[in-house]
Write a structure and sequence with these properties.
about 325 residues, alpha/beta, 8-stranded mixed sheet, about 30% helix, binds iron/sulfur cluster
Length: about 325
């Protein structure tokens, strides 16, 4: 099942004008002469750091030069807001400048899925990804409240499945409480980003309505007094990503810039935690996320763990164990 022994190439460059050269490291034959999805997150309303339309239009132009005909693609989300529905997300895409005339290709939002079984669970992969045999992924690398970091694995693991599957994945990461082990230290309540927990001496209050299923409390509890309702979000994330990309040709572009403490779905993300690094291209989601993390940690050691309290290397480990990709790579700098 694991891919521990395979080594893959990752191309790193600081200036975007090297993107075309970076693509020449890879066989583009499976991607050419047809319409394929360019999977990206078009940003939550009021978020400042999502990939901008002007940048995406440059990506699209380079792909077209290589005889690849992309269309921008994303799926609806589980939480309230414009991106919750197909029509709302289409509206938001326009607000953020993702229109045919500005980016040079169509924009498609999907909210219907087809179940794919991975281990013992079914993940509804959105139809356009399910039916595509080749995909380009544009992933903005930044912090994430529930997974430490969001990159290529998260772009598919959460972004490639229906909102029903997203909801189930989050619900599975809600805490089960084991009172006999709890000493009411309050560490979980302090760490909860959604104020779903209150701890007082001898008393614990938990609001299932406020709980987002991020799993942070389970991770930080020092006494194993909390466990997951189903499984670790980073594990199901790796499995869902596998459901989306297994047996497909996928090229990944990671934009490692505007590295905020929170993700592009957070309207309040405002704190940049690392200087801009650059761009990476590869054909393996585990390797490209590992390389992105390694480059970030070379400048800001352990920054996601320190700022968010979650170790993002877990999604790399789970991804490798599940056969999603390899963490062994050779970095080529342009
Ligand atoms: S962190 Fe664990 S031990 Fe501490 S109050 Fe929360 S559940 Fe109890
Ligand atoms: S899973 Fe997340 S939102 Fe829910 S109680 Fe734990 S820390 Fe809070």
């Amino acid at each position: 099942m694991g891919e521990e022994n395979r080594m893959t190439n990752i191309v790193f460059f600081k200036e975007f004008n090297h993107f075309s050269d970076a693509l020449s490291y890879f066989d583009l034959t499976p991607f050419t002469q047809k319409e394929i999805p360019l999977k990206l997150h078009m940003g939550e309303l009021k978020n400042k750091y999502y990939p901008k339309a002007e940048f995406v239009s440059q990506v699209v132009a380079v792909l077209k030069q290589k005889q690849i005909a992309p269309y921008l693609f994303d799926s609806t989300v589980a939480y309230p807001g414009l991106r919750h529905t197909k029509s709302g997300y289409e509206q938001l895409a326009k607000i953020h400048g993702f229109t045919q005339s500005k980016v040079g290709c169509n924009v498609v939002i999907d909210d219907q899925g087809i179940p794919v079984r991975v281990d013992s669970r079914a993940y509804e992969v959105v139809q356009h990804l399910y039916h595509a045999d080749a995909i380009i992924a544009l992933s903005h690398v930044k912090g994430h409240v529930a997974t430490g970091m969001g990159g290529a694995i998260k772009n598919f693991g959460m972004g490639g499945v229906t909102k029903e599957t997203k909801r189930r994945m989050h619900h599975g990461s809600r805490p089960i409480y084991h009172e006999e082990k709890c000493n009411y230290c309050g560490v979980c309540a302090k760490a909860c980003p959604f104020d779903a927990l209150t701890i007082k001496p001898g008393k614990r209050k938990y609001s299932i309505r406020a709980c987002f299923g991020c799993g942070v409390c389970v991770e930080v509890c020092p006494r194993e007094a909390l466990s997951y309702e189903d499984d670790d979000l980073q594990y199901v994330l790796a499995c869902a990503a596998y459901a989306c990309v297994h047996n497909k040709h996928v090229l990944y572009l990671n934009e490692v810039k505007r590295i905020a403490d929170s993700c592009d779905c957070d309207p309040t993300a405002k704190h940049l935690i690392c200087p801009d690094i650059g761009y990476l291209v590869g054909d393996d989601p585990v390797a490209i996320d590992k390389a992105s993390l390694d480059l970030i940690y070379a400048v800001k050691p352990d920054i996601f763990k320190k700022e968010i309290g979650i170790d993002p290397y877990k999604q790399i480990k789970y991804g490798e164990e599940r056969g999603l990709g390899t963490s062994s790579y050779t970095l080529h700098e342009l």
